[in-house]
Amino acid sequence: MKPSTSSRRGVLDRLNSQSVDVPPLPDPDASKLIQFDDPFERFKESLALVGGEVHEIEHPSQATSILNRIEAFSSAQRVASVLPAAVKSTVDLAMVDDPHSLASLDWMVASGEFMIAENGAIWVDGSTLPHRVLIFIAQFLAIVVPRDAIVHNMHEAYDRIGAPKPGFGVFVSGPSKTADIEQSLVLGAHGCRKLQVFVTS
């Protein structure tokens, strides 16, 4: 017999009312954190290692011409973009009520807040996405991020994000990949099949 919603809620409420003493988080020694002579070059190397591609552009509008050289983009039917200055949407995100309708999305063009040189990741603030699933459900993903928005390591990344706040955000690095099934590498199993990063000067 399944527990009722009220009994489940009662258990959760009791758990939430209990205070748990936890040790304080350690204060990292800033002098021992990894630093790079050229963090942007390191970012490009890190992203390439995980299968992403970096394109240096002067203005977001140049992104479309570069993407048009990629057959998967030039033949795409459903493109969503939160940056019309870079790529125009063929999907009206304002009219999407049910995220399930985005299941056939070919491309998503997102805005990145900053890059992390250490691992080639980009922080995407969920407040820029009409639906959080956009970043995961599209077959291909492009992110536009300013060149001067970069940190050396994850410690600096979390400092830049600051105190946790309601909402959603995600670090994105390279295409989705897994080798859990028969140790065979599969791209796009849990997200995009390819990541294109456009870095604006």
TrEMBL record:
Domain LUD, residue spans: 101-198
Transmembrane segments: none
A Pfam family of this chain: LUD_dom
Location of region: Disordered: 1-29
Record's signal peptide: none
PANTHER family: LACTATE UTILIZATION PROTEIN C (PTHR43682:SF1)
Annotated protein name in UniProt: Lactate utilization protein C
